[in-house]
Amino acid sequence: MSKQNYTVHYCNYNSILVVNPAGKLRQLYTLFRVSYRSPKGQKRKWFIVDEVMSNNEDKIFFLINGQIYEHSEFAIEIQF
User: From CA 78, how far away is CA 65, in angstroms rounded?
Assistant: First the structure.
């Protein structure tokens, strides 16, 4: 999977702001779909984000099926 070509910003517990390289914005609200960044050649696994969190260092985390994961472990496939 290619490197993401967007940046993700925390808005609140149920949304993130996604910015593409051209500066276009898209706000995603939970429940939104993400795919796990699995090694090349493996089947893509999809997950639904239940909640969004941020820590004191502004790292973004997703709550998925009761587990917390760093957002960088997942790809967000959207169109602007």
Answer: 22
